[in-house]
From TrEMBL:
DNA-binding region: 33-52
Sections of the chain in a coiled coil: none
This protein's name: TetR/AcrR family transcriptional regulator
Segments forming domain HTH tetR-type: 10-70
InterPro entries: Homeodomain-like_sf, HTH-type_TetR-like_transc_reg, HTH_TetR, MT1864/Rv1816-like_C, Tet_transcr_reg_TetR-rel_C_sf
Amino acid sequence: MGNKRDEKRAELRKRLIEAAEDQISQQGIDGLKARAVTAQAGCALGALYNAFEDLDMLIMHVNSRTLARLGAALRSALPEQETSPEEVMQALATRYVDFACENHKLWIALFEHRPPEGHEIPEWHRQDHAVLIEVIVAPLKQLRPDLDDQALVLRSRTTFAAVHGVVLLALQGRFVGVPMQDLRQEVSALVSAMTRGAHLAV
């Protein structure tokens, strides 16, 4: 009996996550409504709160799925043959731009969602974000062999933030953002400048 109950709960959670993911991909995180999610998942409103602590926890599970897909996309961009760290960084940046453009609303949800004040982000969800940084560490280590592990992670975060900021402002249509037709070119130029600067800093 316990196994069947667990299986039903797991199936319900899966349906709710998929429904919420679909809702976010169409309407964005601000348009996500619990009733719409449960209606699409084919369950009662109360079932959502039996499967998840609250709507914020459901969003975190959707975001974790997006992070897993993004991680797979970034890893698939890594060249199969040995190449320069500059080329690796360019390949990662290009794939990041492509993923953000192709999954605009789900990608935005990764960075717009904040749990209510007083609610901690679960450690498992924090760990899921590691993929955004870990793929940068290896090529950056080749560029900056002088950095210790702690400094390398910090510099990887800075590198990610620089590229991410350009992409975010462009996709948000901000006045200071890069025009969409120039986004890939400008991100490539930014990565070139950062990798050249890394060489000079050694």
